[in-house]
Amino acid sequence: MKTIIGVLLAIIIIGAGAYWLMRPTALDAPGGGTQSGIEPTPPSGATTTAPEQQAAPQEAIGKSVEGRDIMAYHFRPAQAGGTGEKEILFVGGIHGGYDWNTVLVAQELIDALREDPSVIPTNVQVTVIPVLNPDGLQKVTGTSDTNFTASDVSTSEATQISGRFNAHEVDLNRNFDCDWQASGTWQSRQVSGGEKAFSEPESQALKAYVESHAITAAVVWYSAAGGVFASNCHDGVLPETSTLTSLYAKASGYKAYASFDFYSITGDAVNWLAKQKIPAISVLLTTHTNVEWDKNLAGIKALLAHYAE
Predict the structure, then answer these.
(1) Which 8-state DSSP code applies to residue 221?
(2) Alpha-carbon span 174 to 117, nearest angstrom
(3) How many Cβ atoms from other residues are within 10 Å of residue 177's Cβ?
(4) pLDDT higher than 50, residue 132
(5) Residue 32 and residue 60 in one domain
(6) How crowded is the C-beta side of 238, counted as CA atoms within 13 Å?
(7) Which domain covers residue 19, as residue numbers?
(8) CA 46 to chain centre
(9) Rounded distance, CA 121 to CA 106, Å?
(10) How many CB atoms lie within 10 A of CB 257?
(11) Is 208 in the same domain as 284?
């Protein structure tokens, strides 16, 4: 009797071992997946979100006067083998809450690239700094990031104007090193350009980022005049800047301008970029309230196509 039981146990053990060795594995399944549509349980802390739906890499490139992070969002090609050696930089919110619609344009770009990163050419990466002046945005919208709508914007003209400046009451677009002056002009007003060029932590953050990266081209959004403006700092407009001005204007429907000459500007950010030999354009939205995303999306796509291999 014991012999019979032993034989039966041996048969059971041998059969179980054979099944274990011959069972289908995930790599055996068609396409390398699992059978019956059942996915393995991911390890603790992992995510099963599709790559195109994952958040873009982001970093704080500096802090504002009041200690708020200045964020940059990076988007690289979704295609395998993409190099992304050409970096295109987009900047919004240099005038904080006064130009709050430029922040929302930048956020629209972030959302669009998160949804469909395949629009980025294989040799391009896109960096978006949606809010260079988070303290000024906080004054007008109640938040220092892009999580706001038009209904959150203060209706007080005095509050909106105060939101143009940083917490030192400096106009950041008068604080860059091209014709910098301590007292600058905004329309018919005198505004502070800071104690010296790059005296402010916000402009320092952009300077440090640009100088530590090989920026191929830059777009800075402002409002409101409805146009695309080429940059220069006494050396004439770079040929590539003229090309970008024309491309963006033609695609978007904005008017192209060889320079901003409505009034004298000192310490301008895009003109400083030109001084660094970086092709840069200012895109001024038509009003202070409209985002005009379709127009700007067309301009952005024209630039991406221009820099595609």
Answers:
(1) E
(2) 34
(3) 18
(4) yes
(5) no
(6) 21
(7) 2-37
(8) 26
(9) 19
(10) 18
(11) yes
Same structural domain, 15 and 150:
no
How far is residue 32 from each of residues 18, 28, 156, measured CA to CA in Å?
23, 6, 60
Q: Which residues pair with 215 in a beta bridge?
A: 87
Residues pairing with 199 in the sheet: none
Task: With CA atoms as reference, report the closest residue to 267 among 200, 182, 196, 180.
Answer: 180
Q: Are residues 91 and 224 in the same domain?
A: yes
Alpha carbon distance, N-terminus to C-terminus of the chain? 80
pLDDT at 78: 80
In 3D space, the residue among 77, 75, 45, 47 whose CA is nearest the CA of residue 59 turns out to be: 75
Q: Tokens 């003209």 appear where?
A: 157
**Which two structure tokens, joined as six digits, stand for 225?**
């005049």
Tokens at 309, concatenated: 């291999």
The candidate with the shortest Cα–Cα distance to 287, out of 132, 91, 99, 94, is: 99
Token pair, residue 262, equals: 């409505």
For helices 134-141 and 100-115, give the axis angle rounded to 10 degrees. Answer: 110
70 and 107 both lie in a single domain: yes
Instruction: Please give the full DSSP string across 79-116, using - where no structure is assigned.
Output: STT----EEEEEE--TTTTTTHHHHHHHHHHHHHHHH-
Indicate the number of domains in the chain.
2
Instruction: Tell if the pTM clears 0.90, that is, is over it.
Output: no
For 137, the enclosing helix (H) or strand (E) is: helix 134-141
Residue 184 structure tokens: 């600058």
| Confidence band of 261 (pLDDT split at 50, 70, 90) | confident
The bridge status of strand 86-91 relative to strand 183-186 is: unpaired
Scan for tokens 């018919």, then name that residue. Answer: 188
